[in-house]
Automatic annotation (TrEMBL), chain A:
Domain of life where this protein originates: Eukaryota
Protein name as catalogued: Vacuolar protein sorting-associated protein 16 homolog
Keyword line: Endosome, Lysosome, Membrane, Protein transport, Transport
InterPro entries: Quinoprotein_ADH-like_sf, VPS16, Vps16_C, Vps16_C_sf, Vps16_N
From TrEMBL, chain B:
Disordered as annotated region, ranges: 271-294
The protein, known as: Vacuolar protein sorting-associated protein 33A
Species this chain originates from: Ramazzottius varieornatus (Water bear)
Family: Belongs to the STXBP/unc-18/SEC1 family.
Gene Ontology terms describing biological process: vesicle-mediated transport
PANTHER family (UniProt xref): VESICLE PROTEIN SORTING-ASSOCIATED
Listed Polar residues bias regions: 275-285
Origin: domain of life: Eukaryota
Pfam families in alphabetical order: Sec1 (PF00995)
Length: 858, 618
């Protein structure tokens, strides 16, 4: 390999066989200008996956240097809490104004978890906005706590506190804080419990505390049990001085008072220690013990002003790193961050793919491809030779270069490796899979580069990036109020609006609403201006947020923009804006929504008030009437009474009259209707209803007289029955009583007389008026209908010509009709007759055809 | 339809979506299923999925709310109620479910109540109020989002029962809401419709809603080139006239005589010997009721012959039949003349087509025979004459003797009312004494209970007493009545009613050409607000039109003007036919599509407003 290759591996340190670790600088710390030093901090906590740093300066004198580590029992009274980005840029600071502060840590969603010395936990966002609080039990509050830990368990945040009485109390999820007591350490009340000598280990099933007491190791579980674990070390020790669990929770590392680093697997606790390594620092206890991924543990010793990190692996491999000021170690799932006053470094195991591509002398396809590309760029013929070597595994080589690229923080390195991948890709025959990978990886890496930028200071490794979802990453940006970046990431990655831009904007709007000093109008204006341009944004949700923040008028204003009435109306009701809810519901045209409001008002208001409210709008009123008709006829009548709608009220009695169980009941219902019609000055309906009452009474009498069913018949049917009984006189009176029209009466009587075959009576009836009220054709037709041709003919003679033809046709007298039409020389009439002719009427047809032809029609 | 190849819009494509929505609703409930149908939905939904399809989706049993009892044998996992989201359905569900309340909970299936087309909280609440046990019995209330159903390539309908009554009598605007959604759905597929016109009170309200919806949906989401030019929304009360006379098209007459429901007519099966009996359908299953055997005939464009005759005046159908019969005879005769193998082969290839033509010819000729007695009836002819009289401008001021005669002879109520409404409409309302005379007469003949029906009709605007004589002016300006010597020859739409051209259709036609500006005076006189609105459309999505100058030179190239006509309150088959005639006329290039709340006939309208009393016999 060429010399040039070497510089890739400059920062690599060998760590046993074919394992390398590398350390590189992430940032020059921006906080240098604040003149800080790690040793000044009473508290320093760093959020995982490249998260922010929160520090609390120790405003008291430093701990006395002499003596062993003193349990930190004195809490900080009024400290300043300062949040920095990983690049040391000041994010926010705020004064602590609650009780004495013990510890601050980060929750999984980047809230600040602050623990007071009374065990009370307070959650703040990183901008000092209080979120909520909970306690860790009475005992902690009574006796104070001496130590605590904030840990992650199944993507949730847990808290555990250690009281002065040496008891552990656990809250396994701060979102649902229930307190449990852990088991007690045997012989509990000894002062040798050191702050560094315990750790929380979360397994699939359980949450345990591993703790050392002198030279013993115990495991406490959350149902109060205690188990002694053999520490597995081969030599006697005075005791342990530090304990730390690996990121995967499968191993712990311990340091003895004699300076021996011990690594022990938790998967098989009865076996001995995996490794014991004498750090040769017997006088000094480590200041911090932290894992670097799962493959090595790092102890930090300070010795005569020099700061040494000793990294030890399970196979007793080791590396030293020296720093010239105090450091703080931040274990990550795949690496270790080292923060000092000047720099922020990352130590990680060199990823396998990086080894393949960049290790000196590597024969992996990716390594050849990288070399080929470099030669090609140097315009060297050797490019071709390397390419030939890699040709059989070109796809693998390309993938390796892509995979190696994402492991780099240095953009020039990323570019180099991507160029190699692109170079390899051009020679691939089937490149779609590779291309897709190339493009999407490139996109994500760009996002990572943006996050890692000094301005944002999120040094997320590829592994970390893959370990969390894009949504949670965006949530972290939102928690940092980096809305614009989050927005751009969403649109760059073309995420669906609901997961992406809409969500970000919604969060942004909540932030905006929290600006209490800005007026509702300004906030609404700003929010609407931004949100309106984005499709699929939910103003309803936005309004709900505003309401939750107590900004009602802002909420209403935002809700005004919600296009879906379905979302809008229920919220307006929730906000107590009934009036507006009602008008929005009406505007939507969705009656179901209107009913929602109506029923809500009905349940909320007294009946009287409710009815008053309902009347204000015609459409609402109509819908409520419809509802009442179906379910509450009684209320309906009240409604009409209130409105003084007498006519409507009257009509409610009519179905009642039909459902009545007796004649008096029926009459009384009708009488009620009459009164209402009278009130309403509805003379016509009043008269009709009065007539009906009269009719029923009349019919009752008739029933007595004729011992026949009359009640329930119509005027027409009653009359028909009377005529059928030849009660001419009664019928005549009856007709007058009910103002039946003459024509109606005549039609009826003619029909009945013909039916009764009372031909004389029929003729008498015809003559009863000077001019018959209905045409004589109806007499003829009636006679014909009941089979008396002679009578029919008799009337037919007196019918005028136009009607006569019609009449003849109806009576099927085609021949006569034809003659008449021919006589009248009327082609239309002839046509009418022809239309009626069937095949068997050929004689008539012929006659008509001839006549038509004669008249010049064909 | 004939014009389908001239245009890419085919409403039947919406069917697939509706089908998916329905089946998803069913699939979302676990295990084997029993369906409990709202009886009214059986028709529309059988258009989407027949019983065999439902069986494929694990439907094992079917019940109907009206005719079935709660089953005692519950060998299914889920019970799904498919019901309209309407108040009147609530008591029926409660009644059906009340039996379940006494059954042990463990042996009950999971009960789902699926509201069509959207979940209704008022129905939900009312159900629980009526049957408190329902709160526990019903596992979940859901929506079955099947809205408008395409009945034809050019017709979509909400199939909303009694939509006219709902809107104009009960003043419940739910239909408008569902129309808005249907219009939105159409716009999502065929682009935003730029020009909106409307006539009538509810048209205004609907347009407001459509425009608001349009504004709320950013253009990026509806990124589809416009296919429609005009949206014309008409409130049914603007044109009540057209519903009243008897429809005289083939399809219209089938509706008048037998009633068409969801493009299906049921006729006595014994008239159709040697034809397949109808398949199993929900109202026959488990209802325990045996109806007289019925033949279901599907009336849609899948049948070539029906497509040809449906829009013709009934008098013109006969010649088509005889033409087809001759054609068939000739073609079928070829089998004897065919000598060569190749000829035989050709003949055999044509066989299926010929046989299906023969089959449908037999069917539709039989249907025509069944209609004949109605049409040849003296009453029918006389009634027709009176209708024509009113429409052609005869005096309609006084009590009409023929109407009086019909009442005195107790002829069907709807027939009487249709004539009275027609008289009232052409006369611009009736004089108070005339109306009172009719009303009294009606009560004498049909009984006191009709006082409520008459009141309903008056409230819904069927009888007007205001005296505004606009019809004469409209008739002259829009040529609403044209005398024909021969009804089959004319190309004008007036031929649909043997002389009368439907007002709504003339208005739609004038919209496209020459434009409403030319009749603005008339539009002021015709009752109901006139509305015009525009929807903004990004330049690149607009329909390309040639400039005016070039259109003169190449008129044939000009894309057709496509309009969607929305009827609020229902449309008749005759009107649809008339619009199709316009679409199919070769010299104009305008195409019409129809969206309606339901298919309507005068009789159906009157029946919907009639009130039936629950009479107790004491």
């Amino acid at each position: 390999m060429t010399m040039a290759m070497q510089n890739f591996t400059d920062n690599w340190s060998p760590f046993g066989f074919d394992v390398y670790y590398r350390k590189f600088e992430l940032y020059q710390m921006g906080w240098q200008k604040f003149n800080v030093d790690i040793s000044d901090f009473a508290i320093i906590s760093v959020a995982k996956n490249g998260g922010n740093i929160v520090v609390v300066r120790d405003d008291r004198k430093k701990q006395p240097p002499s003596g062993p580590e003193v349990p930190h029992t004195t809490a900080l009274i009024r400290p300043n809490i300062v949040v920095f980005s990983a690049a040391g840029r000041l994010v926010w600071q705020f004064a602590w104004n609650s009780g004495p502060l013990m510890q601050i840590g980060w929750s999984t969603i980047n809230e600040l978890v602050c623990i007071q010395d009374d065990g009370r936990v307070l959650l703040y966002d990183m901008f000092g906005t209080f979120i909520r609080t909970f306690g860790t039990g009475q005992e902690a509050a009574d006796v104070r706590i001496t130590d605590c830990r904030i840990f992650e368990n199944k993507s949730q945040t847990g808290v555990i506190v250690l009281t002065e009485t040496r008891k552990f109390f656990l809250v396994s999820n701060i979102d649902n804080p229930t307190v449990r007591a852990m088991g007690d350490v045997p012989g509990g009340n000894t002062p040798s419990l050191f702050r560094r000598c315990w750790s929380v280990v979360c397994s699939e099933k359980d949450i345990n505390v591993y703790i050392t007491k002198d030279s013993d190791l115990y495991c406490l579980n959350k149902i109060g049990q205690v188990q002694e674990i053999p520490s597995g070390i081969s030599e006697n020790t005075k005791g342990f001085v530090a304990l730390s669990a690996s990121p995967n929770q499968k191993s712990i590392a311990l340091v003895t008072a004699e300076g021996v680093v011990v690594i022990k697997s938790l998967e098989d606790v009865d076996s001995g220690a995996v490794c014991q390594f004498d750090a040769k620092c017997p006088d000094n206890q480590p200041k911090q013990l932290a894992w670097c991924g799962n493959g090595a543990v790092v102890g930090y010793w300070e010795n005569n002003g020099s700061h040494i990190l000793l990294m030890v692996g399970p196979k007793k491999d080791w590396i030293n790193f020296r720093f010239d000021s105090s450091v703080h170690l931040v274990p990550e799932i795949d690496s270790l961050r080292v923060i000092t006053r000047d720099t922020h470094d990352l130590i990680q195991k060199v990823p396998a793919v990086t080894m393949q591509v960049m290790k000196v002398g590597s024969m992996a396809p990716g390594a050849y491809l990288l070399e080929a590309c470099r030669e090609y760029e140097a315009l060297s013929y050797k490019a071709d030779e390397y390419l030939k070597l890699v040709k059989p595994n070109l796809e693998e080589a390309t993938m390796q270069c892509i995979d190696a690229a994402v492991q780099e923080f240095e953009v020039s390195m990323q570019k180099l490796l991507f160029r190699a991948a692109a170079f390899g890709k051009t020679f691939l025959e089937n490149k779609t899979a590779v291309t897709d990978n190339f493009v999407s990886t490139c996109k994500y890496l760009r996002v990572l580069n943006a996050l890692r930028h000094y301005l944002y200071g999120m040094p997320v490794t590829w592994r970390q990036f893959q370990s969390e979802t894009i949504t949670s990453l965006l949530d972290r940006l939102v928690a940092r109020r980096q809305f614009e970046l989050a927005y751009r990431v969403c649109s760059y990655l073309e995420l669906p609006a609901s997961q992406g831009v809409s969500r970000i904007l919604l969060n942004w709007s909540s932030y905006k609403m929290n600006q209490r000093n800005e007026s509702d109008e300004d906030v609404a204006g700003a929010i609407i201006g931004k949100l309106e341009k984005t499709p699929g944004i939910s103003f309803a949700e936005c309004a709900r947020n505003a309401r939750a923040l107590g900004r009602l008028s802002l909420a209403v204003e935002l809700l005004e923009r919600e296009p879906s009435a379905q979302l809008q109306v229920p919220l307006l009701l929730e906000f107590g804006k009934d009036e507006l809810a009602l008008s929005k519901a009406i505007q939507s045209g969705n009656s179901d929504l209107v009913y929602d409001v109506i029923l809500y008002l009905k349940s909320k208001l007294g009946t009287a008030e409710f009815l008053m409210r309902i009347r204000s709008n015609r459409e609402v009123f109509a819908l409520f009437v419809k509802y009442c008709k179906e379910f509450n006829p009684k209320l309906l009548r009240d409604l009409f009474i209130q409105e003084d709608w007498r006519s409507e009220e009257a009509f409610t009695f009519i179905p009642e009259s039909f459902e009545a169980l007796s004649v008096p009941e029926q009459l009384s219902a009708l009488q009620n209707a009459v009164e209402r019609f009278d009130h309403a000055k509805d003379d016509f309906n009043k008269k009709i209803t009065e007539d009906q009452i009269k009719l029923i009474r009349h019919q009752v009498k008739l029933e007595e007289k004729f011992a026949k069913k009359f009640v329930g018949l119509t005027v027409h049917k009653t009359l028909e029955a009377l005529l059928q009984d030849s009660q001419w006189k009664l019928a005549e009176e009856f007709k007058k009583d009910y103002q039946m029209s003459d024509r109606h009466f005549w039609f009826l009587k003619v029909e009945v007389l013909a039916r009764l075959k009372q031909w004389e009576e029929l003729e008498k009836f015809m003559r009863s008026a000077r001019k018959p009220v209905i045409g004589l054709e109806h007499f003829a037709l009636a006679a014909h209908k009941y089979g008396n041709v002679v009578e029919a003919q008799k009337y037919l003679l007196k019918v005028d010509d136009e009607q006569k033809l019609r009449c003849m046709l109806k009576m099927g007298m085609l021949d006569e009709a034809a003659d008449l039409a021919i006589k009248q020389k009327d082609p239309v009439a002839m046509g009418a007759v022809l239309d009626k002719c069937r095949r068997e009427d050929s004689a008539v047809t012929a006659k008509l055809q001839a006549a038509k032809t004669g008249l010049g029609y064909t | 339809m004939v014009h389908i190849d001239r245009n890419v819009i085919n409403f039947l494509t919406f069917k697939e979506r509706a089908r998916k929505d329905l089946l998803k609703c069913i699939d979302d409930c676990p295990g084997t299923k029993a369906l409990v149908w709202d009886d009214y939905l059986i028709g529309p939904f059988s258009q989407l999925a027949d019983y065999s399809v439902l069986q494929d989706h694990q439907v094992t049993r079917m019940f109907t709310l009206a005719k079935s009892e709660f089953p005692s044998n519950m060998d299914f996992t889920s019970m799904i109620f498919l019901v309209r989201a309407e108040l009147k359905i609530v008591k029926r569900i409660a009644k059906f479910l009340s039996k379940a309340a006494s059954v042990k909970k463990a042996s009950l299936p999971k009960i789902y109540v699926c509201f069509v087309p959207a979940i209704s909280s008022v129905c939900q609440k009312a159900l629980i109020e009526n049957l408190p046990a329902a709160a526990q019995l019903v596992h979940e209330f859901r929506a079955c989002p099947v809205g408008a159903i395409p009945l034809e390539t050019d017709v979509m309908s909400l199939e909303h029962e009694n939509s006219f009554r709902g809107l104009f009598l009960e003043e419940d605007p739910s239909c408008l809401h569902h129309l808005t959604i249907a219009i939105k759905d159409i716009q999502k597929v065929h682009g935003v419709i730029p020009n909106i016109y409307g006539k009538g009170k509810y048209a205004k309200q609907l347009i407001d809603m459509v425009v608001k919806h349009g504004k709320d949906a950013p253009n990026s989401e509806w990124n589809i080139a416009c296919r429609f030019d005009n949206l014309f929304i008409i409130d049914r009360t603007v044109d009540l006239i057209t519903i009243m006379p008897t429809q005289l098209t083939y399809e219209g007459l089938i509706d008048e005589c037998f009633g068409i429901h969801q493009a299906t007519v049921r006729l006595p099966a014994d008239k159709f010997p040697n034809m397949g009996t109808s398949s199993k359908n929900p109202d026959q299953s488990e209802s325990g009721r045996k109806d007289a055997p019925e033949k279901k005939i599907i009336l849609n464009s899948s049948d070539e012959l029906f497509t040809e005759i449906r829009d013709l005046n009934f008098s013109a159908v006969g010649p088509v039949f005889s033409g087809k019969a001759k054609f068939l005879n000739a073609k079928l005769g070829e089998r004897f003349s065919a000598k060569e193998v190749a000829e035989m082969k050709e003949f055999v290839a044509k066989m299926p087509h010929l046989l299906s033509l023969k089959q449908s010819l037999t069917t539709f000729m039989t249907v025509a025979e069944l209609i004949k007695p109605f049409v040849n009836n003296d009453n029918f002819l006389e009634s027709l004459e009176v209708q024509q009289g009113f429409l052609s401008g005869q005096d309609a001021d006084k009590v009409h003797p023929y109407i009086e005669q019909l009442i005195a002879q107790c002829e069907p109520f709807d027939q009487v009312i249709r004539l009275i409404v027609l008289q009232s409409e052409v006369n611009g309302g009736l004089k108070q004494p005339v109306l009172a005379h009719y009303k009294r007469d009606i009560i004498h003949s049909y009984g006191f209970e009709e006082i409520v029906s008459l009141n309903n009709m008056e409230k819904a605007g069927l009888f007007r007493t205001a005296n505004k004589k606009w019809f004469r002016m409209a008739r002259d300006a829009l040529k609403l009545f044209v005398e024909h010597s021969d009804s089959s020859a004319s190309k004008d739409i007036s031929y649909i009613f043997s002389g009368y051209a439907p007002l709504s259709v003339r208005l739609a036609k004038h919209l496209v050409f020459p434009g409403w500006r030319t009749i603005s005076d008339l539009l002021e006189v015709i009752p109901g607000e006139k509305i015009e609105a525009k929807q903004k459309i990004p330049e690149h999505l607009r329909k390309r039109r040639n400039s005016i100058s070039s259109s003169v030179s190449s008129a044939g190239e000009e894309p057709a003007v496509v309009s969607l006509v929305v009827y609020i309150g229902g449309v008749t088959y005759a009107e649809v036919s008339a619009l199709r005639h316009l679409s199919n006329q070769e010299h104009t290039s305008s195409i019409f599509y129809v969206l309606t709340t339901e298919m309507l006939s005068g009789t159906a309208l009157i029946k919907s407003l009639k009130e039936t009393m629950k009479t107790t016999v004491f």
